[in-house]
Amino acid sequence: MDKRLLIPVLIGIAVVAVVVVFIVTGTRGAHLALEWRLVKPRVAALEENSTAVVTDFRIANTSDVRFVVGDVTATLTLANGDTVDGQVIARADVQQLLQFNRFLGNQYNPVLTIRDQIRPREMFDRMVAVRFEVPLAAVQKARKMTLTLHEVDGLESSTDVVLQ
Prior knowledge:
By secondary structure, this protein is an alpha+beta fold. The protein contains 3 helices and 10 strands, in the order H-E-E-E-E-E-E-H-E-E-H-E-E. Strand 9 (144-151) and strand 10 (156-161) form a beta hairpin. The longest helix has 24 residues, at 3-26. The mean pLDDT is 88.
């Protein structure tokens, strides 16, 4: 290869490498990501074929993008592999649920609600209460409960809650 051609090629490779490094490091925090830390869930029968699951958790937003909760869903995976959708209990009803079902314990954190915001690099503690139309024994034998937060712009963040 000619020496006159080698210098411009090396300069071009260096410029491309600098641009790639700039793009990768400049967009590092732009990808929305939540980290979950769960506290052991509390499970109790409400009626013969109805069970409540109350779980407290800490969420950390590790990105530079705000996460606004648009919806919360919960799905129970039973021991046989079937799934059951749960009904998330509204904030207004959680206090009554805990008051009439003392075996579920106290409310330690605010209830997660639609429009709650997790600001960039923020961490917060919340709780969710879910009702499943399944007997307590089936919930206690279940493989897991999947808790999913849907962001208002369509993104999702999920975690699995072990119920045993």
